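Backbone shape codes:
***
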Amino acid sequence: DVYGKSALGIIMTGMWKDGSEGIKKLKNLGGYCVAQDEATCVVYGMPRAVVENGTADAILPLDKISEIINQVGQNGRRI
């Protein structure tokens, strides 16, 4: 609620889909979401839920996620 469109959500390897509810809220506030790709996940449950519900803005391998974090940190907003 505080950061709105400046928020960045990252969903990484994990079971279930509970993280997708938080990402939906983040997206409704204008935030940006990155989901880890299936190939680099140990368990693709949480990223899959975000990808399947259409709230992932980007789907990236683990080694590329830090680049997005750095870009947002430097630009103060989206990629």
